[in-house]
């Protein structure tokens, strides 16, 4: 009997497919049933060969050997994945396997994973494509009933291949050129460089910013306050202090007459459904999750629990066929705090509003929404529950009635000067009720709102005082991971461009993709180009210098946006891959020439006196996302050594987060902000746990006790010795 081989991207997905397809016989690296054989990759099993595969001279990094431009890039099996590749290849080559179904992730990268395996294994059998947006049993069964011919995705594969080859040609050449030229561990790439440049430019704006004093004037009545506004344009701030003081003198103690009252009925619908970037932004803003962390959590909710749809999507809408399944999805989430809202929606006709149902705004995948599979909330970790909760509340909100309120605006006259006040009166909370126990969703109309009494035109208000408030202009805010994602998605709002180029950036969806942005941000931290101060992202000296060393075109978001447009055109069959490939090769030549001709210098400002135990060169002290570490300056050596690890335990003196320094029995909690320190072994012994097992209440209780003991007038020789201890 002939069989069909199904290729999944990961073992967990493969097992789910096998269960639905009735493949119960377990084998090494695959599962088999009467009709199907299911096997899997481990992410990528095949990748592009390293430079030394083309020429022995590339084993050594030399500037004179650049650029590297192999006529045809080779595929190689990833060494750690060789065993599984051989399993997949042998199953594909079975005589009884007549057809292969590609069941990797439904996207550009998933297509590349499968096609490279098939190409490397030299398989010529008929191919079909499983294209689904959720991993529920129902979705899998329906997907296999509606398999697509693989040729429909040939252009998607070509676009993915062009992207990978361009990143090799451009990325490896510019990385080797910079590293060799400046004898430092430097990397560059089209998305990474553009993203880093935005962070460095923002830091430069903050450094160059010169604050200016300005003044606002408020009139305080018995029940609310009014703010002065310029009659010509409505400005509320005054930079001229003399003028501001003169207005206060002329209006203080003078009668206030209401000259206009406007009441407008307003209604506001819920924000749109989540795509990955918007979800990562909110998770960062509310829970301080990194973009990578949010994607990882989403992947588990999609693959392991099967309660949310495909995460790597850039759409915030659902198509009409998915809209028809909403009742089943509402039943699946009708539990806990969601139940009453789900039942309210199901109790009346659900309207397919254009605000969330629109076939024309769907790309490869629709917005992130719940599946038809019922969730067991008790099985979710706190982090998984937080992300799941965000998605479910947004899903419910888009189908609930609008938030309705009456917006009242008052204009008053005091001694010929205009004063205004604005306030809202809620008529119906609508969809906002979903957020009453969760994170509130503020809208622009709610800023500075206050409750206003019933007032009519001609009324006289009792003004108790007119006050002058001195303020300062503020520099632009540093990026957080959430706002950096916004900048990557809409870079035209953060860089100076003419109208035409800004339009190009807007139309191409910015720099990077929803699937790659988290990895790019993570790489900036891992390469020590940026570090965190609280939630803010700050460029290091290495990052600032790199931006100055990278050729101008590579760090422009416009260039990478144009790349994405060309790749999109390739995926749609509008552009030939060969044209794009030739363009990238010419560009790589230009980049290497720019670096070779450069007269710039690179200087380490974090070099220490500690020598590397492997190669003897002096090491660098760097700050990673999880702590401080020593890193060998020699790229070929790559030795790293931890100095300290950041913890969530708060200092009892200044409430800053403590660092855990040292190794083994010598580990010690140290506050980087004040003089507090406590030996970790004593801390752990007190609770008979590791520091990772401590909860906040235990830590807080113990820290208070330590503080009380520290405040006692005792000066033992041990305490004196510890106070003088200098830990590097």
TrEMBL record:
Catalytic site positions: 310 (o-(5'-phospho-dna)-tyrosine intermediate)
Signal peptide bounds: none
Keyword Calcium: no
Cited Gene3D superfamilies: 3.40.50.140, Topoisomerase I, domain 2, Topoisomerase I, domain 3, Topoisomerase I, domain 4
Domain Topo IA-type catalytic: 153-592
EC numbers: 5.6.2.1
SMART domains (UniProt xref): TOP1Ac, TOP1Bc, TOPRIM
Presence of keyword Isomerase: yes
Family statement: Belongs to the type IA topoisomerase family.
Chain's role: Releases the supercoiling and torsional tension of DNA, which is introduced during the DNA replication and transcription, by transiently cleaving and rejoining one strand of the DNA duplex. Introduces a single-strand break via transesterification at a target site in duplex DNA. The scissile phosphodiester is attacked by the catalytic tyrosine of the enzyme, resulting in the formation of a DNA-(5'-phosphotyrosyl)-enzyme intermediate and the expulsion of a 3'-OH DNA strand. The free DNA strand then undergoes passage around the unbroken strand, thus removing DNA supercoils.
Cited HAMAP family: Topoisom_3_prok (MF_00953)
Record-given protein name: DNA topoisomerase 3
């Amino acid at each position: 009997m002939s069989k069909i081989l199904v290729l999944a991207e990961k073992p967990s997905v493969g097992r789910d497919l096998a269960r639905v397809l009735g493949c119960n016989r377990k084998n090494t690296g695959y599962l088999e049933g009467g009709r199907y054989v299911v096997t899997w990759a481990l992410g990528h099993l095949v990748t592009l060969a390293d430079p030394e595969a083309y020429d022995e001279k590339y084993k050594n990094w030399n500037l004179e050997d650049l650029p590297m431009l192999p006529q045809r890039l080779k595929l190689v099996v990833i060494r750690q994945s060789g065993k599984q590749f051989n399993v997949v290849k042998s199953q594909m080559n079975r005589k009884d396997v007549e057809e292969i179904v590609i069941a990797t992730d439904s996207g550009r990268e998933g297509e590349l994973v499968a096609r490279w395996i098939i190409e490397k294994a030299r398989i010529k059998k008929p191919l079909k494509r499983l294209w689904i947006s959720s991993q529920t049993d129902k979705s899998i069964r329906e997907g296999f009933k509606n398999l697509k011919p693989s040729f429909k995705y040939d252009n998607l594969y070509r676009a993915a291949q062009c992207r990978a080859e361009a990143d090799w040609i451009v990325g490896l050449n510019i990385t080797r050129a910079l590293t060799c030229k400046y004898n430092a561990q430097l990397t560059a790439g089209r998305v990474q460089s553009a993203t880093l440049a935005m962070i460095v430019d923002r830091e430069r704006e903050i450094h160059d910013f010169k604050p200016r004093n300005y003044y606002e004037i408020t009139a305080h009545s018995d029940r609310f306050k009014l703010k002065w506004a310029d009659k010509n344009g409505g400005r509320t701030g005054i930079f001229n202090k003399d003028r501001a003081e003169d207005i206060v003198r002329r209006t203080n103690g003078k009668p206030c007459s209401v000259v206009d009252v406007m009441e407008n009925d307003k209604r506001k619908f819920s924000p749109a459904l989540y795509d990955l970037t918007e979800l990562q932004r909110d998770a960062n803003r509310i829970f301080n999750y990194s973009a990578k962390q949010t994607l990882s959590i989403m992947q588990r909710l999609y693959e392991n629990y099967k309660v949310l749809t495909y995460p790597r999507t850039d759409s915030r809408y659902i198509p009409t066929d998915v809209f028809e399944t909403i009742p089943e999805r509402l039943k699946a989430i009708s539990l806990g705090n969601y139940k009453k809202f789900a039942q309210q929606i199901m109790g009346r006709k659900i309207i397919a509003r254009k605000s969330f149902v629109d076939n024309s705004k769907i790309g490869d995948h629709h917005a992130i929404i719940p599946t038809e599979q019922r969730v067991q909330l008790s099985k979710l970790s706190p982090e998984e529950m937080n992300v799941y909760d965000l998605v479910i509340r947004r899903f419910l909100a888009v189908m609930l009635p609008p938030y309705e309120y009456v917006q009242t605006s008052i204009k008053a006259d005091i001694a010929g000067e205009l004063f205004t006040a604005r306030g809202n009166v809620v008529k119906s909370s609508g969809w906002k009720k979903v957020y009453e126990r969760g994170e509130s969703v503020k809208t622009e109309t709610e800023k500075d709102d206050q409750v206003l009494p019933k007032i009519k035109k001609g009324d006289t208000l009792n003004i108790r005082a007119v006050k002058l408030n001195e303020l300062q202009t503020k520099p632009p805010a540093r990026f957080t991971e959430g706002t950096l994602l916004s900048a990557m998605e809409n870079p035209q709002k953060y860089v100076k461009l003419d109208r035409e180029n800004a339009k190009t950036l807007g139309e191409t969806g910015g720099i990077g993709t929803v699937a790659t942005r988290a990895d790019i941000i993570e790489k900036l931290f891992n390469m020590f180009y940026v570090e965190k101060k609280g939630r803010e992202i700050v460029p290091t000296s290495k990052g600032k210098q790199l931006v100055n060393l990278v050729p101008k075109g590579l760090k422009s978001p416009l260039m990478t946006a144009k790349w994405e447009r060309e790749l999109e055109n390739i995926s749609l069959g509008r552009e030939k891959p060969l044209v794009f490939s030739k363009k990238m090769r010419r560009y790589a030549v230009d980049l290497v020439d720019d670096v070779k001709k450069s007269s710039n210098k690179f200087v380490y400002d974090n070099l220490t006196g500690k020598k590397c135990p492997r190669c003897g060169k002096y090491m660098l002290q760097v700050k990673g996302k999880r702590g401080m570490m020593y890193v060998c300056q020699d790229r070929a050596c790559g030795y790293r050594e931890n100095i300290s690890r950041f913890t969530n335990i708060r200092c009892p003196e200044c409430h800053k987060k403590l660092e855990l320094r040292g190794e083994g029995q010598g580990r010690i909690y140290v506050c980087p902000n004040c003089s507090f320190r406590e030996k970790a072994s004593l801390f752990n012994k007190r609770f008979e746990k590791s520091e990772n097992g401590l909860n906040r209440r235990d830590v807080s209780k113990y820290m208070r006790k330590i503080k009380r003991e520290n405040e006692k007038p005792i000066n033992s020789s041990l305490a004196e010795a510890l106070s003088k201890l200098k830990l590097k």
